[in-house]
Design a protein that fits this description.
The complex is a heterotrimer of chains A (328), B (293) and C (324). Chain A is an alpha/beta fold and 328 residues long. Chain A is 32% helix and 21% strand. Chain C is an alpha/beta fold and 324 residues long. Chain C contains eleven helices and twelve strands. The chains are: A alpha/beta (328), B mainly alpha (293), C alpha/beta (324).
Amino acid sequence: MEGLDVVYHAPPLELHALRDVTVTVRPGEIVGVIGESGCGKSTLANAALGLLPGNAEVRNGRVMLEGTDLVDLDDEGLRRIRGRRVALIPQDPLQSLNPTLTVGRQMADAVLAHAERRGRDRRELEQRMTTMLERVGIPDAAERLGRYPHEFSGGMRQRILIATALLLGPPMLVADEPTSALDVTLEAQIVELLRGLREERDTAIMFVTHNVGVVAQLVDRVVVMYAGRVVESADVTAFFANARHPYAQALLGAVPSHEHRHRRLTTIPGRVPSLAHLQAGCAFADRCPLVAPICRTVDPAPVTDGASLVRCHARDPKSGWQAPAGAA
Amino acid sequence: MVPSRRGRRAREVARRPAGTFGIVVTLLVIIAVLFAPVITPYSPNAQDIAHRFAGPSSDHVLGTDDLGRDLFSRLIFGCRVAFSIALPAVGIALVLGLFLGLIAGWFGRLLDSTLIIATDALLAFPAVVLALAVIALYGPSTRNTIILVGLAFVPNYFRVTRALVLAARSDVYVDAERALGARTSRILGVHVLPNVLPPLFILVAMDIPGAIAVAAGLSFLGLGVQPPTADWGVMLNEGFLNVYDSAWPLIAPCVALVVVTLGFTFLGETLRDVFDPRVSRTQYPLNQRRKRR
Amino acid sequence: MSGDPVIDAREVRVQFGSGSGALQAVNGVSLKAARGEILGLVGESGSGKTTLARAIAGLQPTAGGEVYVEGLAVAGLHGGELRRLRRRVQVIFQDPHASLSPRLKVDYLVREPYTIHGVAKGERKPAEELLDAVGLAPEIAEKYPHELSGGQARRVGIARALVLEPTVLVADEPTAGLDVSTAAGVVNLLSDLRDSRGLTMLLITHDLNVVGAVADRIGVMYLGELVELSTSDSLFEAPRHPYTRALLAAIPLPDPTRQSGSPPLEGEIPSPHNPPAGCRFHTRCPMVHDDLCATEKPALAETDTGLAACHWWRELAGTSHSTA
C-alpha cells in the first residue's frame, strides 16, 4: 500500500481512518500491524482485501496486490482476486462460519466461487479439502467435512477458517486478530501453524493484532499505527530492542510481565483523538511525553533509516524539535 | 459534546417523512378529540331530513347522511369515540400485560408456564369469534367493546414484556446489582422496568390503530358501539346500507380510518427505528465503537 | 499464613444442570487468601475460575463445600444477612459496559450502593470523590454508560465496588477487552488500591502476564480443579505441574530473541461434560505415565514450593524450568 488515505463518511462527520499509509509485505514475510482501538488497523486489513464498506472513500493512494491496484478494480474484479490472490483469516470463528451449512460445503464454496471450468471433479475437491484440514491439524478430516460448525471447538473453528483461506493457495494472507478469541495454549498452536505456512509456501502474511507478545514471536517486521498513521515501522528485533516512537515505547512499557513486576506499568494519559476532529500537527501531541511546540503545528514526516521508519519530530534531526525540560 | 438524547431523537423522527406524517396526524387527532364541540358546526346527532344525502357544500363540508346529520361533525365526534375506546383498551392491555409479563419473566417456572398457556389459549381464538361469544352473553355496548379489545391485545404485551424481562434477568447489570445487594423489587423497578417500557410504548403507538380498527369492525357488525352514537364503525355500517343514495356517508369514515391508522402506524414504526439501539448513531465517531474480545 | 484467612473456600463444588447431563464446573476446590494479598486465579476456558469466583462472592449457589469470608459462612445466607455480606465482598465484572445499567447516569450508579444499604446521608461521599478515587474526572458523573470508553466504564465499575469499603474484591477479568495501555492503567489502579486500602483481592484472569505482574500467590485451574497453588515467584520460576509449565511456555514473550519453541500443548481442552478419568490433564500431559495418571486422580499435595496436583511433581522439580 502506498500513500493510502481512507475516509469514512458518516454525515455530518468525516472520519480519517487512514492517512498516508504505506505498508509493504513481501513474499514469505510476516508483517505485524499493532495498535490500539481507533488506530485504523482494521481499516488497513479491510483495504488489503478490497473489503472497505460502502461509506468508505479512498481519497489517495494505491493498494497494489501483485501489481494490480485494488482501488481501481470494480466489484467483479475484486471478487476474482479475493480468495485466490489474497485471503482473510478473520477474528471470530463463531461469527464467520454459517451455522446452517456443513464445514465441507462452506469450504467448497470458497473454491467453487473461482472455478474456471464447470463440473469440477467433486472427489478431487474433497481430497484437497481433506488434505488442507489435516495440514492445519484437524484429525479425522475426511469425516469432519460433513459436520457443522457448532460441533467444533473454538480452536478448531479457527483452523477451519485458516484451511479455507489456504484452499486456493493465495500468496497473501490477511489475518485480522486471529488469536484474540483463543486461549493462550491454542494461540501458541496457531502461531506455530502460521510459521509453518510461511516456511512451506512462502506465503506473505499481514498479521493485525493488539497482542504485543504474539507479534514478537511471529513476525519479521512490525508496523505501529496510531490515529490512522503509521508511526513506526521496523524489523522486529530492532523494534523490541529499541523502539523509537514515544507511543511505541509506551505501548511496550504497558505490557505486564512477571519479569518486570516491580516496575510500574506505563500508561498513556488522555484518550485517542477522534478521527473526525483531528487537529493540526502530530496526533499524539496531547499525550506525548516529548511534546514540543513544533509537534502541535507540523505533522511529522516519516524519517527512514535503512529498514526502519519513524514519524516523530524528536527523532528527526532536521525538524527543529526541542527537548522539553527534563525529558529523556 | 453529545447533544441531549431527547432533542436528538425528536429531530430524527421529524427527519423522516413517515414520521412527519405520523406527527401531523397525531396532532390533528388531538385537536379533534379535545376540541370536538368547538370545531364542529353541528351537533353530531342533529337531524335534518330535508337535506339528507346532500353532497359537500358550504353548509356541510362533507355532506350529510341518511338522516341529514352533518358528516363532518359526526366524523370529528367519531374520532373522540374511537379514541375513548382505543385508549382505555390499549391501556388495559398494557397494564395487565406488563404486570403479568413481569411476574412470569422474573419468577418463572410454574407461574410462567401457567400464564403462557393462558395467553396462548386467548390468542387461539380469533377476536371476532371471541367477541360474538361475549356479546351473546353480555350484550353489545361501548364498555364491553373496550374490555374485549383490551383483552384481545393482552397476550402481545405479555409476550413482549416477558421476553424483555427474561433477557434482562440474565443481563450482567442485573447480576451487578445483585452483587451490590439490591433487593428484587429495586432491581425490577429501577433497572429492569425502564429498559422494558420503551419498546412497550412503541407497541402502544402501533396498537392504537389496530384497536380502533377492531372496535370499528365490531361496531360495523353491530356488536360494539350502538347507533345513534357517532362512531366510525357505525357510520360505515350506515353508509354501506345507503351507498346507492350517496357515497359520502361511506367515504368519510373510510378515509378517516385509513388516515388515522396509517398515521399512527407510521409514527410507531418511526419511533421504533429511532429508538433501536442497533441503528448506528452518526454522532458517535467510529473509534468509540470497540471490538470486544 | 499470618492471621485468619479472609477468604476460606473448602472443597467447593458447583454443578450446572442435574442428573447424568450435569456439568461439574468446579470440582472440589479449596483455597485461602490472607488479608491484603492478591490471589490470582488463572485458567483457560472451561477451567471454572469465574464460576468459583462467583461462588465465593455469593452469586452462585454451590453444590457442595463451604465458603467463609472473614469467618462468615457464605452459603445459605438470605435477605439481610446476605446484604451484610455484600458490604464486605464486592465484585468487578468482566464486561465493563454490560455491568452498568444502561439508562442511568454514572452519578446515580456510583452512589446507588449507599441507597441500597441505607447509609446515612451524612456518611455518604459525593460522586466526585468516589470517581476521583479511581482516577476519573468529575465530568464523568453526568454521562451515561454507553458514552464511556471501555477503560472509563471499567473504572466506574471499580468505583461502585469500592463505595461500601469492602474488605474483599473479586475482580473477574479486569483487563479483558481493554487496550494494552488502558489495561495497564487498571492494573496499576488495582495494585494501588491494595496498597492504600489493604484490600484482599481475588484476581481472575486468563492472562498470566497480568497475575505475574501483580499477584502475590497464584492458583492454576484446569477443568474445574485446582492443579497448582504457590507464590508468584515459585510458580513462574519453578512450576510443579505440567499444565502450569505448558501455560508458561505458551505465553508469547515480547522478546523476539527468545523464541518459544513448538507449542507446549497439542489438542484441545476436553469437554467439561466428560472430563477424562483419573487426572483430568492426563490426555494432554507431556509427561504422562500411563498407568497411574489415567486411573488415579492426584490430590493437591504439598510440594517444595506450594501445592500441586500431580503424581510426578518431583520430576519437574528435577528439571527446574525458568521462564523469567
